[in-house]
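Q: Now give one record:
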Amino acid sequence: MSLESDLRLANRLADAAAEAIRPLFRAEFSYESKGDASPVTEADRAAEAAMRRILDSELPADGIIGEEYGTERPDASRQWVLDPIDGTVSFMAGRPIFGTLIALLQDGWPVIGIINQPISGERWVGALGKPTTFNGKIAKTRRCRELKDASLASSGPQYFSDHEGEHFMNLASKTAHKRMLFGGDCYNYGLLASGHIDLVVESGLKLYDYAAHVSIVEGAGGQMCDWNGDPLHANSEGHVIALGDPARLDDVIEALACDH
């Protein structure tokens, strides 16, 4: 398939997930806790199932890596990575800052990414070699002259180990920490791609948590990498930096590496 046809399919997957999610938002739905104590709702499962039905029907040779239903065809060179609701806690609380994440990996490297917020109708689309779009218009990150001016976001302090938290807070102390944002999950990466946030730093992410963001952030002029500055791929450990202005990368890595 061509990149354009893959993009059309990815957008259809986002539409299908949105149709499954919207009727359950701020409505009654069933949920339970998974083995790691994180919640999963019937909306998560319905949205992923809807996307998998399309992929199984139209691209039966491609692999699928999904948060709720696991991996199919793990040896395929093309892998679709699905997180039907990134930010399930926000969804359950009625906060429309969650999103559906869709990525296509080629030999373990991200080539397409979508963040779709089905309630507000906001969609970021990124693809290798193409400018990122937000609802069809080009999205661009903003420049950041100094680290002390950077706005920093992260999903929450509970996702860092004590050791990681110390390094994160050292970085935070060197940014515009009075403007630091917790919560938001994937929505933060979309805001970064559109030039509203400068920096997102997280740890403990799974592939389906970060794969979609790479094409989106980098296609908007930013950079994504791990805490060592290495590019993100299927086997990355989940320590993630998303930066609107790549010129600040050395400053961020130095602050994260600082010993206490």
